[in-house]
């Protein structure tokens, strides 16, 4: 009887212990950790070292754009191109060819991918160049033709102001592509400007200078250059008109003066040929291995204001690398492994690049080389170049600001 009573009392006590008290606050001191989440925000000024700059990744010959600029005190840039002709004879039919007597005119189509909309009286001047222009042609070597061989001048602002964007006297027209934010120019070259010389196989070459009331800078999409001949061909003693297919540029590039300064101790990004900077980061283990990174910001101090026209502002990208082998380190081109910042022309403002993606990537894979590469998003698409102070400049050296959460101290108090 006594044992039965003890068992009954034990059961009641056990039931009472398991009753849920809805109105009472929770209490689980044996299982809840006593610590708190700790967020740390720190600026690390000594973890970047062995930084360096290399130039020559994208040259004028391989750039997607042809640059022309008139920026006194900074650069004078001129686009150049060559169009190969059809030779001395033209196919009239499957059984007949005729000598090409000359051309009545030609039409050049090009796309202006970038221009300074704040520049007034923006004009393009076309000069006849030697048909021998090639990759070895220099700015100084074309000084003569760019002085005495002007064949056509077009004021883009005037053309845009005309009804339908057409000049009925010159035969020039422009289409405003608002979707892609570009101008498509179709320019007529008369007989004097477009001379079809049979002994030269009809090859022509031209150079483009740009001017405006203030700073002038444009970029022409290389792949859009198109030349249409309107030929006169001898057909059994009778001249006949022929309009063959359009021709693309056999050669295109741009020349400029002065040449870019050689690399020095500063960290350069952009320009032509394009420059990249490499920053080696000694990523602290207590952050990389034992924390959750919330945000990372790379701070860089420019050595001088960025020169150029307002339209020459450019985007700088920060990349990681597959492996660090110096100048030829292969970068990881992935949107999730890339961070960017816009570099504006003029002000000497401190540049801040959010590098959260890159730091989180390093933290997720500790075998990766912790090297940052800074490059222009569109390399050799602008003459503008920015230079930052390197790590040896103690007062202005690059720094990383990292916000992270320390590992939570789980466990019994």
- Portion of residues within helices: under 10%
Biggest beta sheet attributes:
15 strands, antiparallel
Mean pLDDT over the full residue set: 89
Quickly give the structural class: mainly beta
Number of domains: 2
Distance between termini?
A: 44 Å
What do these coordinates show?
Residues 1-20 have low confidence and may be disordered. The protein has 2 domains: 39-58 and 273-406, no CATH class; 65-257, no CATH class. With 413 residues, it is mostly beta strands. The protein starts with a helix and ends in a 7-residue tail after the last strand. It has helices spanning 2-17, 145-148, 156-161, 285-288, 356-364, and strands spanning 39-44, 48-55, 65-71, 75-83, 89-93, 96-115, 123-128, 150-155, 166-167, 172-177, 182-190, 204-211, 216-221, 226-235, 238-242, 247-248, 251-257, 267-270, 275-281, 291-300, 314-319, 338-343, 351-354, 371-376, 385-388, 399-406. The strands form 4 sheets. It has a 15-stranded antiparallel β-sheet that branches. β10 (172-177) and β11 form a beta hairpin.
